[in-house]
Amino acid sequence: MEEMEEELKCPVCGSFYREPIILPCSHSLCLSCARNILVQTPDSESPQSRRASGVSDYDYLDLDKMSLYSEADSGYGSYGGFASAPTTPCQKSPNGVRVFPPAMPPPQQPHHHSSAALLLPMIGPRNSCLTCPQCHRSLILDERGLRGFAKNRVLEGVIERYQQSKAAALRCQLCEKSPKEATVMCEQCDVFYCEPCRLRCHPPRGPLAKHRLLPPAQGRVSRRLSPRKISTCTDHELENHSMYCVQCKMPVCYQCLEEGKHSSHEVKALGAMWKLHKSQLSQALNGLSDRAKEAKEFLVQLRNMVQQIQVHLSADKDTKQKENSVEFEACLVAQCDALIDALNRRKVQLLSRVNKEHEHKLKVVRDQISHCTVKLRQTTGLMEYCLEVIKENDPSGFLQISDALIRRVHLTEDQWGKGTLTPRMNTDFDLNLDSAPLLQSIHQLDFVQMKVPSLVPAPPLLHLEECCNHNNSATLSWKQPSMSMVQTEGYILELDDGNGGQFREVFVGKETMCTVDGLHFNSTYSARVKAFNKTGVSLYSKTLILQTSEATFAGGLQIDAMPSPLEFLQSPDQESFVSPVAWFAFNPGSAHPDIIFSNDNLTVTCNSYDDRVVLGKSGFSKGVHYWELTIDRYDNHPDPAFGVARVEVMKDVMLGKDDKAWAMYVDNNRSWFMHNNSHTNRTEGGITKGATVGVLLDFTRRTLTFSINEEQQGPVAFENMEGLFFPAVSLNRNVQVTIHTGLPVPEFYTSRASLQA
To answer: Which residue numbers delimit the B box-type domain (predicted)?
Structure first.
């Protein structure tokens, strides 16, 4: 019950609701708090003047949904819901909800004390605006003021029961001295009994056997609930609610149906709709209850992971110390002091990495525990509140809030969607020490005069017919000379950094073919191979010069996405080939589990209402790259985001929320740029079904630019782009996109580049 307490507190004053009223947005406020946050509006904004001009009260409810997040139009500084509302700085309530201070009272008018004037402090000024502190929707009050809002009697009943449950325990009514705590209450006798008095005065036999015994708390509630409260109409105070308007989703009276605004609406019996909505809320709670149970088990799993991570840390440290001690004992102290010093320095670096990994794992798991605990507390509180609401026997009061509660329950259940109850970190340490190359060098340490040159393997020959490359991957093949009689134990493939730097080993093994992934686009690499056996290492093969995919291509050539074979060698000692432009698709291996792939991984959508991230298969660090995404489906005006990201970007939030992504998110009317949750450059113009979003990553100028339907959207989005970036998209179940790659640079960009030149 304690976790439900936040559901019972006013977002303005932070205390339990007192005389709560229901706003049209389904949120509740204390009557006194609503009176305090009323804002005076000009006469031109009065209900009478708007009716005369044909403007509806509800036109002011369609607010700019993204203005709450925009830098240029944040809505937090002075938000009134319409242009002419007075702008006043917002402040925070005890619950942390942003609210607006009360409007300045009008100057006193002396010698005017009519009865209408005396009512104003109770119902608010005639021309007043009330802004919900939770959803920021605004409403102009009519001539009834705050009396036009229905009272939330169900919420009052739940609060009363909650406060009674925390009060002192009920006492037996039949104990003569020092009444004991009651254990049951007889519904027919209307008496609370302790266990001895029940056995003595209310035996479970004879005429009292048919009496119904209840727990004390339930008996107290039963006393309070009988007789049922009578609900009256807010428009016709002398009439009781008798029907339910399906269109307006509210209880109505007989007079509303005869002469009010509900006369032409579809109505149903109040009792039938009460039972139907109770059933719907109960069914929705079943699914949410399962999620809460899974969350509790998940929290236990996460807490066990913290202990396992700490155990693994100590075990890994001991293992590394033993391995290092074996290496120290195997070396000749007189000849290997320098190697031992270098190894010690490297050991410190490796142990530092292990400690960092340990701290990172603990932080991720603890953050997930904290996040999951808060969400579970909110879920449990909502469940307990809903269960208390279901106990109410006031149909009209229940139906006033049932729709909003059902929506909240479904929304909360969706938030426990797939992936939420999955650990973001495993307990195992993946930092396996790769000591094989070092051990091989140690085993090869020997006296120089013992080597026999004739027993060293011959240099390998590159097998050009089987060498090929695709995008930023290269496959190399080699073989031993046919006349070689020396036994070979393995091969070492070396590759430079793509800038003519030092060679590094990328493969050691017995195989004669190797595929190297993750190369830079539009880069030239040098590769070479050598063979080895127990005697020693051979000379290097011829150096192979290879170039990865170009950033862009000109003209209307049809480029095949198949791997391209190597071209002829340029010199006796060097061989080279050039790859065509980069073609790529989305990467299922790095995507969020909610992402759905089709069309050979070129088309993606999502099965969640939350934003999920998917990356492209290819990463870029050089050149100029342009790709487009067509909007295949666009329902309910969502906000998909398009851009680039690091490989470690968060996959369960909108693209651009963290510092690992640079994106443009867009709806049907406008777009924003976002990086590290900072929103900039709001630009008019949105997307619809069939629209095309272009992304242009230019490493020569280190910029990222966006376009919609082949026209640049806003200024240059981001500058100083350096490093390795992957194409990225975030979307929910209302959006489906298809990616198109290998495209020429758009005309708007080439013309701008020529002007700058």
So the answer is: 167-216, 228-270
